[in-house]
Amino acid sequence: MPIPSKYDRQVDRDISDLFQLRSGSAFYATLIASPQSDGFIFTGEITPEGGQAVPIDRVWSVGERWRLLQNFTRDTTAPATIFDRNVRAFGPDIQHVLGDLRVAIVGAGGTGSAVAEQLVRLGVRHLLLVDSDILSASNVTRVFGSTPREVGQPKVDVLRAHLMRIAPDLICSTIQGMVTVQSVAQALRSSDIVFGCTDDNAGRLVLSRLATFLLTPVIDVGVLLSSDSAGVLIGIDGRVTTLTPGAACLVCRNRVDMARAAAEMRTPEERQRLADEGYAPALGQVEPAVVAFTTAVAAAAVNELLDRLIGYGPPERPNETLLRLHEREISTNSAAPRPRHYCDMAQGKWGAGDEEPFLGQLWGAE
Q1: Taking the CA atoms of the chain, what radius of gyration do you get in angstroms?
Q2: Looking at the domain assignment, is residue 135 inside a domain?
Q3: pTM over 0.90, yes/no
Q4: Does residue 112 fall inside a structural domain?
Q5: Is residue 31 domain-resident?
Q6: Which of 37, 130, 151, 345 is the most interior residue, by most CB within 10 Å?
Q7: Which value, to the nearest 10 degrees, does the dihedral of the CA atoms of residues 189, 103, 341, 240 take?
Q8: DSSP H or E stretch at residue 310
Q9: CB-hemisphere CA count at 13 Å for 294?
Q10: Which residues pair with 66 in a beta bridge?
């Protein structure tokens, strides 16, 4: 059993000060692990300089598979009976993992609300919802949990109230703000995984950096409906891109419109002036959106999370899934970082964490 002995304790006392002096770290950590067929079990502690030791209760491992390993002393009670069908599908251990995952969802609209409801019904019990928008009348046609009574309320509040009715034991925090604001982006640091369900390009630029600088995987989704000159729907395209350390970011994949991202970061007055002068794209157009299509793409995103946790897919997983619903076709692909881009491992940005500036980018005043 991975339990520290009195000799382990003495070694920690003998070397902790020297370790912090030589490494420059503000923390000293120990981990005792015992291998198992599906990973390892462990106990551990982390001690801040001049402080008291705090138990390490979980290890989040990110690679082709994602594993949440919990402390050897964790609670091993059986999952609640409401999850019986889930447990029959993928076992009690995965159900425990879902209950302990810290998940952030950026965007509480058609895709974000559908992702959130599926996650909560699966058993996720720690959520952070981020969105700056107010629910409009046209949102009600696709935002899960919304009714005409909630029009005018913040989307995050509407969605949280709905999710709490499904799972009263849910721990759900909300931020009514944009991820392009530094304090909002920093709130994502405590998340194990982030779902990017925002439709703005500037927000995607921020989310794209999380997998490199914080080693936090991001599942980014997008839906595009296109029509011909007569207004007839001819294209229903969905995208689920999984951002992990070692995979191409959204910029390397050309999934971000850089001109629109730059325009979105300007004040409304600046945007209008530049648009009038032909130097910036016009923003604010209302894009078509249909609940059947946003929900289908949301389901594909949740499937990506489950596959990464459970491993029912191919051993070498693609990092993007494209859905052409109008053609009833699904394809997958993988892409590597461009040389010398921040997501390229050779640039030394993996796990850079809270360096200044945060995420290696400049931020505007809040």
Answers
A1: 22
A2: yes
A3: yes
A4: yes
A5: no
A6: 130
A7: -170
A8: helix 291-310
A9: 23
A10: 62
Does residue 34 belong to any structural domain of this protein? no
User: What CATH number is associated with residue 340?
Assistant: 3.40.50.720
84-100 vs 110-122: helix crossing angle, rounded to 10: 110
Distance set, CA 1 to CA 34, 43, 45, 71, 89 (Å): 7, 9, 16, 12, 30
Indicate if the pLDDT at residue 311 is higher than 60: yes
Lowest mean pLDDT among 112-121, 263-272, 280-289: 280-289
How does pLDDT run across 223-280, given as a tens digit for each residue? 999 988 888 899 999 999 999 999 999 999 999 988 888 877 776 666 565 555 554 4
Higher per-residue pLDDT: 260 or 162? 162
**Spatial separation of the C-alpha atoms in residues 80 and 191, rounded to whole Å:** 24
| C-alpha distance from residue 204 to each of 184, 195, 230, 248, 327 (Å) | 14, 11, 32, 13, 27
Domain of 142?
101-258+289-360
Domain count for the chain: 1
Hey, what are 283's tokens?
Answer: 């923003």
CA 271, 272, 273 angle in degrees (round to 5)? 95
Query: Rounded to the nearest 10 degrees, how much is the dihedral formed by the CA atoms of 310, 312, 315, 320?
Result: -90
